[in-house]
Amino acid sequence: MKFKFDHDLHIHSYLSLCSKEPTQTTANLLKYAEETGLKKLCITDHFWDEDVQFSDESVPSVYDFYKIQNFEYISQNLPLPESDNMEFCFGCETDLDKHFTLGISPSCFDKFSFVVIPTTHMHMRGFTISDSDIESNERRAELWVDRLEAVLNMDLPFHKIGIAHLVCGTIAKRDDLLKILSLIPTEKMVTLFTKAAKLGVGIELNYGDMNFKDEEADIILRPFRVAKSCGCKFYCGSDSHRFPNGSEFRRVFERAIDMLGLEETDKISFLR
C-alpha cells in the first residue's frame, strides 16, 4: 500500500521566535490537521535545554534566541487541544552546535513524544558552523557527513527521533546546495543510512526540501533513495511557521512519495 500523507511531525507554533505569526496557535494547528485529514500532528517548536551549557556564547543573536526557547517557554502550549479524529503530540526541534553539542539532555527526552534534530543548520555562523567552514563547498559536504554521523553515534532514544531537512537551503544558497549534495560520496551515504536504519531513526521528508524543480530531482532525492535502499524509514514534516496550506503540502509530499516509491511499510515506527 502506498505511503499516505496522513501526519505532520515537524510544525511550529507562534512560540518559535522565528514564526512571527500570532495566529499559529495550537487551536489553528488542530484545525489545519483535521481539514487536511491528518491522523497525527506533532508540534516541534525550537528548543535548547537549559541544562545543556552553550559551548560558545560568542554569537549573541543565536544565544539570546535559544536562551528564551527553553522548556518552560515552549510548554506554554500545554495542554494540547484534543480531537476525536487526530492525535496531537508534543515535541520539539533542538539543535546541534559546531562542537556537536546537542541541545537536549538525556533526562529531557521523556518530556517529548518526538524530537526533531536538524544536522543541516549551517546558516548560523559561529554557532553551528565555524568561520573556516564556510570557505568551500567541499568543506560543507564534509560537514553534512560529519554532523549526521555525530548524531548517529550518540546514545539517544532513536525510536522517537527524526533527522530533519537533510537537503535544506540552510546549508547554502541554491546553486551551491546542489553542488554540495553532488559532492557527498554515495558510499558515505550508504554507511550513514545503514546505521540510521539499524538505529530506527526517522528520515524526514521536509516540505521545503521536497518542493524542488523537476530538473533538480536526481540531486535532491539521491540521499533519500540511498536511505530507502538501506532500509531507513520516513515521515513527513511541513516545517510550517505560518498559515499551513494543507492542499499545497499534500501536492508536494505526494509527488515526492511517488518519485521515491514509498509504501506504508516505509513509515517510522512512531506512526504505527
Keywords:
7 strands; 9 helices; 35% helix; alpha/beta; 272 residues; globular; single chain; 7-stranded parallel β-sheet
Please render the helix and strand layout as text:
Blueprint: E1 7-11, H1 26-36, E2 40-46, H2 60-68, H3 71-74, E3 87-93, E4 114-118, H4 137-152, E5 161-164, H5 174-183, H6 186-199, E6 202-206, H7 207-210, H8 217-229, E7 233-237, H9 246-260
Parallel strand pairs: 1-2, 2-3, 3-4, 4-5, 5-6, 6-7
Helix pairs in contact: 4-5, 4-6, 6-8
General description of the model:
The protein has helices at 26-36, 60-68, 71-74, 137-152, 174-183, 186-199, 207-210, 217-229, 246-260; strands at 7-11, 40-46, 87-93, 114-118, 161-164, 202-206, 233-237. The protein has 272 residues and is an alpha/beta fold. Helix 4 links the parallel strand 4 and strand 5 (161-164). Helix 6 crosses helix 8. The protein is globular, with a radius of gyration of 17 Å. The two termini are 14 Å apart. The model has no long low-confidence stretch (mean pLDDT 95).
What's the gist of this structure?
This protein is an alpha/beta fold.
Shape: globular
Distance between the termini: 14 Å
Low-confidence stretches: none
Strand order in the sheet with the most strands: 1-2-3-4-5-6-7
Written as H for each helix and E for each strand, in order along the chain, the element string is: EHEHHEEHEHHEHHEH
Q: How many strand segments?
A: 7
The number of helices is 9
Largest beta-sheet characterization: 7 strands, parallel
- Whole-number mean pLDDT: 95
Helix content: 25-40%
Gyration radius, in Å: 17 Å
Structural class, from secondary structure content? alpha/beta
Strand content: 5-15%
